[in-house]
Amino acid sequence: MTHTAERPVSPPEAEIGFVGLGVMGQPMALNLAKAGTRLVVWNRSTERAEPLRALGASVAGSVDEVFSRTRTVIVMLVNEQVTDAVLGRGTPEFAKLVSGHVIVSMGSTAPDYARGLAADVDAAGGRFVEAPVSGSKKPAEAGQLVAMLGGAPDTVSEVRPLLAPMCRETVVCGPVGNGLLMKLAVNLYLNTMLAGLAEAVHFADRHGLDLDNFKEAVDAGPMACGVTRVKIPMLIERNFSVQAATSDAYASTRLIADAARATGVASPLLDLSSSLYGESVGLGNGRLDMVSVIEAIEARTEAIDPANRT
Question: Global pTM?
């Protein structure tokens, strides 16, 4: 269903809403503000909005205020439950909130959830684009994210230029659901890659190799990339300051596994890495960077031989 008469058009000078200023959302919004986008922002913890206020963004007192002042609203929230709660989905307030708006959801959710949310937004007289991003805190700060867009072609075309200050690339993936499926495919590679990298560092360390030499060897070879250049020093220094949280990595692996099982697709490497991220969360590392998965690998080594304890 379309609602041509109610379709908002956001001219360049129009205010844009941004809801959710977490680890990823805040630097993304800051890049929009630095590029001159007029923002109306909201976050549950108000202190996260202060850097935006300093750049001239308006800080709303409520989500309702964001929607009342804007026609395009970017939503960057931690999960499906928070998204539903913030938008009032399932209540009479939801339709009042989203009618006449373009909702751009940039968080990572299940594809089926996004399809359902898009249908509800459409039924209420709004439009919906999914734009999950690949990248962690540092790429978010540098405006180097990659967005995978799903939605109606005309709405995607309208939204795409807005994302340029946040994203180095925007990839159009088809209808709603496909953008998130693409994000899950990318994350399958990322999550298994990071677990493998942590295991390689652990292997080198337990064999007494110089880890700086290990870094040099990787950097000089075909596996070198932005991820290895950032994560190997973190692993060597035991610096687990969050760029992408372990709990988020674990949640991502569960979303991927659910999507795989729904279509009868095997995911053996994903399943093993999911267990490792879950074990790291169990060790209390949920809000540390996902490279903390090395501690789950170390725990398995210690279980083989307690003499291997560090």
Answer: 0.89
